[in-house]
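Consider this today:
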Amino acid sequence: MTRFAEAAGRLAGVAGWLLGWRPDEFWRATPAELAAVLRAARSEEEPDGGVDGGELARLMGAMPD
């Protein structure tokens, strides 16, 4: 069994056990969706960051298209 298959199997098991996901729900989820749900399940806060209004305006001015 490859490393990917082993890791995917473990993640599918965690998703089924912790989240109640069926296999088709696991395989339809994106890695970002799975990570977000697992962070929420572990009560981890999202890191502060992103773009504030001033930075967005600067970026829009620099790249108007």
Notes: The CA atoms of residues 7 and 31 lie 12 Å apart. The chain has four helices and no strands.
